[in-house]
Queue: 2 jobs
Job 1
Amino acid sequence: MNRRVSRRDFLHLAGTLGGSTAVYRAAMGIGLLPVAARAARPLLTASGKSRKVLVLGAGISGLTAAYELSKRGYDVQVLEASFRAGGRNMTVRHGSRIDETGYPQVCNFDDDPDLYFNCGPARIPGHHVNLLGYCKELEVELEPFINDNRNAWVQDDAMFGGKPIRAREYLSDTRGFVAELMAKSINKEAISGPMTPDDWDRLREYLKQFGELDPQFRYIGTSRAGLARHDYTAPEVLKAPLSPSELLKSKFMLIMSFGETDDQAAMMMEPVGGMDRVVAGFMRKIGPLVQLESQVQRIRVLPQGVEVTYRRDGQYVTTKADYVLNCIPMHLLAGIEHNFPAEYVAGFTAIPRGKLFKIGFQMKERFWEREGIYGGISWTLQDIQQIWYPAHGIHRKKGVVLGAYTFDAVAGEKFARLPPAERFKLAIAQGAKIHPDYASHVESGVSIAWHQMNHMLGCAAQWDDALFKQWFAKLQAPVGNHYLIGDQVSYHPGWQEGAIASAHHAIADIDARVAAAGTQVVRS
Amino acid sequence: MKKLLAACAAIVVLSLLADSARAGNSFDYCLLCHGANGNGNYGIRAPKISGMETWYLARQLGNFASGARGTPADDAAGHEMGPVGVRLERENIVDDAVRFIASLEPRRPSATVKGDVARGRKLYGACTACHGTKGEGNATLQAPALAARSDWYLVTQLHNYQRGLRGADERDAYGAQMRAVAATLPDDQAVNDVVAFINSL
């Protein structure tokens, strides 16, 4: 059985990752800002002239490797099993095919530049320097992506009878409550050690600011939670704080810091017109090197070089190269014929495949903007987990909303086993708990069950610490002249930056080997 | 201008249809899950299908298509196969798929299940009437061969029969027979033992 990451596990993880909470920081008196490491693209020095490289898979890692190596003169060919390049970097718009094994779909969104849906990666943080570097070089125009919107909704059947509240209410009222509680309960005498009276005063001031407490250190509400009305001809009226016991009933506390994590905090970006503009950028440079609809069936590592057999138009074709860079998902590699060592192959089946699932809905009206929501994410503890609102095309008539994005395998499988129309029905029923007239706005939908997508059968590899320790070095190391690449062989699976890092790692190694071999041709 | 747009739209639709027909008629996507030459992929729990009897393949694809198999909530692998069966039937290409699978080159899979072969031999006595003493199967009785299949898959299916994830649907009469026999295996070890014996055939 696959190791299943339950929602609770995920939420706990998300809470842990994002969870150096402000209260903790206040108590400890720390607040360090990590500095993004600036990873440089490897400088390739050797000439690739008269050396052939096969890249298996035209995902982001494969395209990166092909682009860089072709610049150095290598004879590069990319074999891609699908009818399209990009791998999980996939944007659908009017007429796009969604190649799910059992439920093939065609996207019926209107033909409009703002009506698209990013099925895979959808946002880029500012420290993903390699991806951003390629965006710049390939002239992929970027615009802000809104991840965190305090005006968006939080909905959980466990609190307030399932009635949604604004994210700003949850965050402000829980912080106010916690700050007041802490200010009242910290006993100066009980804290021994280096805390001076000045430290004490500063901590109390911090708590006051943290929760926006009144001079008596009481939380009586704050404009951070939103005003009761926005009539600027009349005095401001604060909302009454929500019941803390009710707020604390929700497991939303485990994801409330999502938008503060390293990869998710503002300022985030997205390509104008869809994430697949990155793929289009690469294809403008190396499109002729990419051969589609070529499904690899066999890999044989030779004493020098690698032999690859693939199927194209129902025929088997065999070809040889000096080096192979392979981003075929490991769980699919496990099923092809090969002569890899057993301890390498065992890793292919040891890392569970992700089963993430997404739905996109074309809405005939941007009703969320009437609710004061411009971009961002509403969170729910239901299966759909999230609703995303587009930050592009503001105030236009229509928009494409993300209607479900599940992280855990159980919810993913629950949706995936339904036909698309049933998936939409379930997502609409759940979305209606956030927006009561949700159903009336839906014009058409798309659904992406990554573990049932042709040539993928999985989302990001589900590594954990124990698996990294046992398998990562083995899978990252080349077998002869065969290199496994992709976000699956990075410490950042599920992100394009991880895919690029793995490609850079492999091509730097090849460069060093080619340089060491001098002018000697290693081709078999 | 309007006519031109309509013509363009028609071309787009036609080319989409052509694409989807091509995807449907190319059975390479069987190999996507079931591996090169259909010899199975444990990585996604897809069994070896090459060398399976054509009548057995057709019946099981029919079961997946009708929902007689692959629908119980706990059968995650069945959920992935179910829609494929539906699609093959909808596109009326079940026979083509079976022919394609019959054209593949079967390989004997490596043994992965460990068990007590001697005990398995005794337990296998209940299987011989239908599946044969050599696990060769019996077309008359509609019992498929068991030798040289993915052994981990035999274990999974025996458990599925025992748990009612397979053979519980009234449309699956042969599955019901198998379910009754699987229920006679007393524990997990017995399942492993009998499969270990099948590996020795």
Job 2
Amino acid sequence: MGRASGAVRDPVAGAVARLLSAGAIASVVLVALGVALMLAAGLRPTSDSGPDPDPASILADAVALRPAGLLWAGLLLTVALPTARVALALAGFLRLGDRRASAVAAGVLGVLALAFAVARATS
Amino acid sequence: MAVTLLLAAGGLGAGVFGALLGLGGGVLLVPILTLAFGLPFREAVAISLLAVITTSSASAAVYLERGVANLRLGMTLELLTASGALAGGLLAFILDERLLAGIFAAMLVYVAVSMARRRGPGVDEQPPDLVADPVDASRPAIGFAATLGGPGYAVRRLPLGLALSAFAGLQSALLGVGGGIVKVPAMHLAMGVPLRVATATSNLTIGVTASASAVLYLLRGALDPYVAGPVVLGVFVGATAAAHIAHRVSLRVVRLLFVVVLVYVAVQMAGRALSAVSG
């Protein structure tokens, strides 16, 4: 797909774009595999409740091709991808010496970290 | 198997409609999951948030690669959208689900009326260069805002844009929608950002906005992977397919159909809000 004329060659934006693209594809592939295994196993959503996410077992379940493991791996990757994107942008801005953009990116990371902390504390 | 495929089909339909009309999948997805599948409102919102993150990430990558989305402006607005989403995510577990359904119904009516009032090609269908800058261009951008502009445009009224972004984040977390119906007008009409850039930048910010509240829903057990998986997959496929068929369909017909569907869904959601039984 060709680029629009006048495309901005921003190295940070380019790196973020590649991360988002790869991350989105990876998460969708994991979820698709999980759904395929769900179908094969005859699991019925809305009547067969899935397990809660357990970080300790997700990887092992995914490697063992258990539906819940693959689904959680894909879904958690989905939730984590925006945070990874902000962290990558922060690293890029710091490398460019862009203090204002770095401060903004650090602030966004701070809000996301606060959201995670609040979620853990109140769950 | 049938339920799995139906969930995927529901996601597919929401993804196609949402992408064709630039609204994201959440506007239709939450009603489908609550009304057709009987899911609790909060679970539907949680699944919708995951779906909009997936589609946002994929489309934002393209917009960034093409140099259309403004990364620095988007991240500045994310400071407030994510904060609003955090507040909204907390509020969502305090408010009664019937009240949330009522707020959702009101939002659907607003969107339906906005669409029905458009005559001829919508502003979203015009080439971006033909969309006039609604902000007085003679006023120079100043301060931090002056560093956020892009080729051929400057960012103005940043404080107003930030305030509207916080509201967009709150709305996104409460209702499971991307928030584009607030963010795009905020950037375009209030801040003077060209429509195409505003749409692309809004898409970029949806991921962080939704992620800030999705983690709250996730850790509070409001997400079932067996339901979320097929829906997220369906929305992604639908949104991707819509990008390929958009030029072949009459957006006027799609919009008319969408208005009818929105009104019907709004009535159903209002009925749910008024019912004696909480979801």
